Amino acid sequence: MNDAHGAARLDGKPNGKVWLVGAGPGDPDLLTVKAARILREAEVWLVDDLVGPGIHALAAPGARIVKVGKRGGCRSTPQDFILRLMARHARQGRMVARVKGGDPFIFGRGGEEMQWLAARGIAAEAVGGLTAGLAVGAALGLPLTHRGMSRGVALVTAHTMDDSRPDWRALAASGLTLVCYMGMRDAGTLARELREAGFAADIPVAVAHRVSCPEQRHIVTRLDRMAEDIAEAGMASPAVIVVGHAVSLIDALPRHAAMTLAA
């Protein structure tokens, strides 16, 4: 048997299974059909902070919902505790949904969790979700790629546990639109590093908070004013920072385009 609960054990009882479910950027309408189905069937949800109430509403009556938030700069649930919870419920024969904002495999620790579960013989499968760094394009009416202006997109994190950094210099030379996650904690340092790597001081920047959610808001600025404008606007995480010439096209598109997904 290869259904959502996995194969039967030798004692005839069903094995449990863990699903790493990408819940998208927040708007329930942006869930995949498969994600919505798995969430309705799951007996246990282990849920990140950024998963909105509209998505919680999909839980079946009686489903156990456990909040296991992990937010930069905030008190977080230890990763080891989350892993042990997944294993415990799966070994008790339950269908477990590890519900993550965005996509499990884009800054969501999905690879680490899949490896950990596989090493212990626990069935696991991932369901992709729309990450905020891609959803921001439609949300703001911002083409992340555009002929003659941007030949591709790079999704990067500006914050790591070991304080390492992407190769900003290579990215500056690439001509790609840059989408930075986790860059709000120290936007001033990020702006300085990008300029030192070769990004122009006047390159357009968009900063989008809570992409696709009712509280979505954004600013459009330039790199040398980015940190100051973020502070003046009172913006904070969760947000993505988009750097590139294609950002200039926001003002060229109809004003309602930026509100389509948040409506």
Topology:
Elements: E1 17-22, H1 33-41, E2 44-47, H2 53-56, E3 64-67, H3 79-91, E4 95-100, H4 110-119, E5 124-127, H5 132-140, E6 153-157, H6 168-174, E7 177-181, H7 187-197, E8 204-209, E9 217-222, H8 226-233, E10 239-243
Parallel strand pairs: 1-4, 1-5, 2-3, 2-4, 6-7
Antiparallel strand pairs: 7-10, 8-9, 8-10
Helix pairs in contact: 6-7
Task: Report on this structure.
By secondary structure, the chain is an alpha/beta fold. Helix content is 27%, strand content 19%. The protein contains eight helices and ten strands. Helix 2 (53-56) links the parallel strand 2 (44-47) and strand 3. The longest helix has 13 residues, at 79-91. The protein is elongated, with a radius of gyration of 20 Å.
**Unreliable sequence segments:** 255-263
Mean pLDDT metric: 89
Q: Compute the CA-based radius of gyration.
A: 20 Å
Shape: elongated
Q: How far do the termini sit from each other?
A: 42 Å
Q: Strand order across the biggest sheet? A: 3-2-4-1-5
Separate helix tally: 8
Question: Summed up, what is this model?
Answer:
This protein is of the alpha/beta class and 263 residues long.
Q: Top keywords for this entry?
A:
single chain, 263 residues, alpha/beta, five-stranded parallel β-sheet, five-stranded mixed β-sheet, 8 helices, 10 strands, 27% helix, disordered C terminus
